[in-house]
């Protein structure tokens, strides 16, 4: 008999959410395995941020289920939240605190203090190339550096699942490339599971998995080559356009 499959890093099933009469998510389901890099692709208003709010327990889901490494977000929120790191679309750094203070505050919320906190903070700042800016106030950093601080902060408690909502918005090409390559590297090296929400289709290459979310519904999901075959086209952009009924206008997205 083969052993039971390991728990998914993130499993979402039957998830729906409405704001009054507006249905933002409809019966959304997917599974992310440890080590997977999964791009959640959707245009503005697709429901990406709403999905993040439900998975991170900012909103309560009335319909559906979310589990993180087998922990139900409703029944075992502490265990589920301890296993995830999040980079929200809007920065939540305190601009008047130093880089290190921002990370230390986050570490203490996760019960990490003293020398353990100092070590973890130093390790993560080293990893994103910002150890020499540890005592700078966040206000003094560029947009790209702030994003890197947010990434380091999200990983300081060593989660095995990382969620990022439109992490490259507003960044220049170099900062964007750094962020994508760094996160992809963490998937390969640490087995980190990643859900990367974006409207930029080129942020998912052929080795990624994708979830195409449109008007609150998952239109298709899986490894990029497989969703392309199902859509009957050869590129992810063409797949996205075919599924969502968008006209191809080149560039832009
Ligand atoms: N607080 C809210 N009250 C009412 N409607 C909302 C609220 N938040 C989101 N919506 C609506 O829910 C739908 C999904 O929005 P959501 O922000 O989740 O999409 P998104 O894919 O994250 O888009 P964007 O990339 O623009 O942030 C949209 O129709 C939006 O107008």
UniProtKB/TrEMBL annotation:
Coiled coil: none annotated. Pfam families: ABC_tran (PF00005). GO terms for molecular function: ATP binding; ATP hydrolysis activity. The keyword ATP-binding applies. The keyword ATP-binding applies. InterPro entries: AAA+_ATPase (IPR003593), ABC_transporter-like_ATP-bd (IPR003439), ABC_transporter-like_CS (IPR017871), ABC_transporter_ATP-binding (IPR050763), ABC_transprt_ATP-bd_su_PQQ (IPR022467), P-loop_NTPase (IPR027417). PROSITE patterns: ABC_TRANSPORTER_1, ABC_TRANSPORTER_2. Keywords: ATP-binding, Nodulation, Nucleotide-binding, Transport. Residues 10-240 form the ABC transporter domain. Belongs to the ABC transporter superfamily. This is ABC-2 type transport system ATP-binding protein.
């Amino acid at each position: 008999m083969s052993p039971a499959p390991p728990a998914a890093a993130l499993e979402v099933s039957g998830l729906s959410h409405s704001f009054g009469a507006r249905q933002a998510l409809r019966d959304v389901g997917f599974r992310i395995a440890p080590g997977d890099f999964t791009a959640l692709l959707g245009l503005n208003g697709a429901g990406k941020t709403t999905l993040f709010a439900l998975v991170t327990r900012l909103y309560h889901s009335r319909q559906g289920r979310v589990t993180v490494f087998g922990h139900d977000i409703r029944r075992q929120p502490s265990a589920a939240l301890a296993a995830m790191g999040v980079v929200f679309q809007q920065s939540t750094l305190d601009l008047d605190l130093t880089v290190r203070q921002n990370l230390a505050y986050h570490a203490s919320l996760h019960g990490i203090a003293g020398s353990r906190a100092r070590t973890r903070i130093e390790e993560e700042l080293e990893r994103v190339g910002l150890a020499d800016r540890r005592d700078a106030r966040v206000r003094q950093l560029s947009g790209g550096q702030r994003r890197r601080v947010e990434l380091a902060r999200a990983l300081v408690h060593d989660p095995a699942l990382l969620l990022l909502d439109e992490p490259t918005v507003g960044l220049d090409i170099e900062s964007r490339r750094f962020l994508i390559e760094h996160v992809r590297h963490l998937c390969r090296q640490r087995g980190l599971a990643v859900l990367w929400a974006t409207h930029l289709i080129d942020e998912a290459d052929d080795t990624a998995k994708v979830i195409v979310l449109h008007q609150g519904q998952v239109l298709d999901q899986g490894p990029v080559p497989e969703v392309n075959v199902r859509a009957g086209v050869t590129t992810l952009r063409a797949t996205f356009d075919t599924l969502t009924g968008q006209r191809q206008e080149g560039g832009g997205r």
